[in-house]
Structures are given as structure tokens and as C-alpha cells.
Amino acid sequence: MNILLIDNDKYTTEVVRQILSADYEIDIYNSSTKAFLHYSENPTNFGIVFTDFLMDKMNGDELIEEMLKINSNQSFIISTNTMNKKLIDLSKIHPDKIYLFDKPYDLKMLKVLCDSIIRAL
What backbone phi and psi angles, to 5 degrees, belong to 77? Predict the structure, then answer.
């Protein structure tokens, strides 16, 4: 199963890739707009879209809303340093599709979360 990993911090994407690549194919993007373009060409290719919240041009919540228009069955993990009302509201609208994950990452818990999402698909 593939994971689309989107974060403007290259260090973060590399650390997450190292943890998850043993079990998953990981496509990495450090630009949300480039990631969206790739996703729109392959909308059913990813079990999970794992995205940061604060990014260039298109924030994580905007990215998720656009991706859900293309594939309403997509599962997401959205990460952030600070939770806000917009994120919480978005996760309440789609409680079975959007999972919030705080930074800094507990990498063991991230692996557990990914495994449980994939098993539920």
C-alpha cells in the first residue's frame, strides 16, 4: 500500500520515510501544490495521505478538501505543532477519514496509526 507524504520540511519527510518505508511505498513531496498535482493524476493509488498543516501555497486543510473532492474515500493523517479549530472541525466532519497527529512525532505511534488505517481499508 502506498503513502503520499507531504511536508515542506525535508528532514521530517526523510525521518518518516525511514520509519515507514520498510512496510510501505512512500511518495514524498515537499510542496503541497506538486503533491496535489501528482495525487490528481493517481487518486486511488494511496492508502494514506500524510500531510503537514502549514505549507506553501496550499495548507493541509485546503489540500485535504480538494483531495476529498477527487476521492471521497481517501484516508488522511494531518500533522501540526498546534491544533486549531479548523483542523478539529475538519476531523469531526470526517472522523473515519482524517486523523490528527501532533508534532513532535512519536514515530512508534505513527507506525501503529498507519498500520491500523491500512488494516481498516
Answer: -115, 125
Q: Which set of grid coordinates corresponds to residue 89?
A: 472541525
Going from the C-alpha of 118 to that of each of 33, 55, 58, 60, 62, the distances in angstroms are: 25, 25, 26, 21, 23
48-52 and 75-80 strand pairing: parallel
Residues in CB range of 54: below 8 A, 6 or more apart? 60, 80
Angle at 98 between CA 35 and CA 13, to 5 degrees: 40
**pLDDT tens digits for range 29-50:** 999 999 999 999 999 999 999 9
How many CB atoms lie under 10 A from the CB of residue 97? 17
Domain 9-120, what architecture? Answer: 3-Layer(aba) Sandwich (3.40)
